[in-house]
Structures are given as C-alpha cells and as structure tokens.
Write a structure and sequence with these properties.
Length: 212
C-alpha cells in the first residue's frame, strides 16, 4: 500500500505482509470439541510447563473429522489473504500442519520461525488483553540504530498484536515471532497452522516444480 501526502509518495517496498482479521468463527465450539477442561497430561509436548507455552503433540489436529467445517472456514479466511491481498491466485494452498497452543500464567515462547512452509497463521480461541499477544521481530542487520520520535510499521523492529477471541493472523513463515508472556490468570488458547502452495510453481525453466 502506498500513501500520497502533499504531492509526496511513500512506497512500502518489499514488505512482509501480515494479515489480521476479526472473524466470526465459533471459537467456543472448537474449545468444546477439544475437551480443554481435561488434564493437559499426555496431550501436549513435554516442555518446561512452568515457563513455556504448551503445544499439542498432534501437529495435524485439524485433520480430525470433528474439525472439518472449522478447517474449511480457516482455509476460506486464508484465501482472502493469499488470493485477494497477495494476488497469488494461480495456486491453491494446502494446510500442512495444525496444532493447539496453551499459555497459563507466566508462560511464553521464544522467538522462532516456521521452516518447510510458505505461510503461517494463528486463530485465537481464548484470550484477553493480558493473556499474551504475538510479537514480530526483524532480526535483519540494521546499520544505524536511530531513535525515532514515533514508532510505526515503517521504522519499528518489533511489532505487537493484541488479539481478541476470534482474531486470525496470517504471515510469511520466515518472520520471527513469539508468544508474549501471559500475565493473567486466564489461559490463552490458540490454533496455529502452516501452508504450502500446490500445483505448478515457477516458469518452465530448470527451477519450476509441481507440488500435489
């Protein structure tokens, strides 16, 4: 998106496009289907449960039949990002992995990115303004570290999103991000997912591919 002010044009060249939308997906119904009130024992990866956000062992959770309609809704939201915003309309996309994350009081995650995928996303099922949003960080080498009088998407090296229940976020998988610390007594529960393009990719040279 470009802006024109006083006959001057500001170009956002080569940006990382992050998509944020408040959806009408029935998050309460998803929570009911997950039996989240049950013990987390055996359902989540063995992590430091005192400090780190928990991730479900099942990394293809939305392949379960009971989530079929919700997976369809999420894919429809994703295509608004990939097709309507980014104009990648020549390809369909496949959800390669999907999993739950849960943060209790004091839990957070480290900065990380997602390999072996093109886009990633998260749907917030249960949260509040203190339960821990998502923080994006630019780790590219900055030659001069200047202090701005106002930080925005044009000059920030970190950017936080404070989600609500039903908020969905999509972003390029190479972006470093982390789950911020849950500072409330309420659990923060979300669904995360990754995507790959399928079909013909590239031209007809030596670097094209057909992915099914």
């Amino acid at each position: 998106m470009n802006t024109i002010q006083n006959n001057k044009e500001v170009l956002l060249l080569f940006p990382k496009v992050v998509y944020v939308k408040q959806t009408s997906i029935d998050c309460e119904k998803i929570l009911q289907l997950t039996n989240e009130k049950a013990s987390v024992s055996g359902n989540y990866d063995d992590q430091d449960k005192k400090y780190l956000t928990l991730a479900s062992k099942n990394k293809k959770i939305l392949n379960k039949v009971k989530y079929k309609n919700f997976k369809k809704e999420i894919m429809e939201e994703f295509y608004q990002y990939a097709h309507d915003v980014l104009n990648y309309k020549n390809n369909k996309f496949k959800m390669t992995t999907s999993w739950f994350t849960k943060s209790s009081l004091g839990q957070e995650s480290f900065y990380h990115l997602h390999n072996n995928c093109m886009f990633s996303g998260v749907l917030y099922l249960k949260t509040n303004e203190y339960a821990g949003g998502i923080d994006f960080c630019n780790f590219e080498n900055v030659r001069f570290q200047l202090k701005a009088t106002k930080y925005d998407v044009l000059n920030a090296t970190n950017y936080n999103i404070v989600p609500k229940i039903g908020t969905i976020v999509f972003f390029p998988s190479e972006m470093y991000h982390r789950i911020l610390k849950n500072k409330s007594n309420e659990e923060r529960i979300s669904l995360a997912f990754n995507f790959l393009p399928i079909g013909h990719i590239g031209g007809e040279g030596d670097s094209h591919a057909n992915i099914k």
